[in-house]
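Could you join me in thinking about how sequence relates to backbone shape in a protein? Would you write everything just below, so we can both look at the same thing?
***
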Amino acid sequence: LVMEEAQPAASRRPVMPLLEQLGRKGTLRILWELRDGLPQSFRALRTSTAQMSPSVLNDRLKELRAAGVVELAGAGYVLTEAGAELVRRLLPLNQWANRWLDDTASN
């Protein structure tokens, strides 16, 4: 997503800055809440991410917009084409997590 000061290692492993950005508090939650493609207002996102403070939500939305994966449309925040592709690529991870949770619960 947003590459701060590009380090030589980051240029060889672009997944690392992506993982750092996705690992920031609330980033994945915001992407997940926007996955259905319907625009959501800041207030709606604030409700669906109840544990996130408004200032953190605002910061993450700014970062996601700067990274080109979220945009503010007339009716609210939506994923860009790149954001929708990123979420599609995360879906297998969600499937794995569901299986892992089922396995953990059965043990």
Remarks:
- DSSP finds six helices and two strands in the chain.
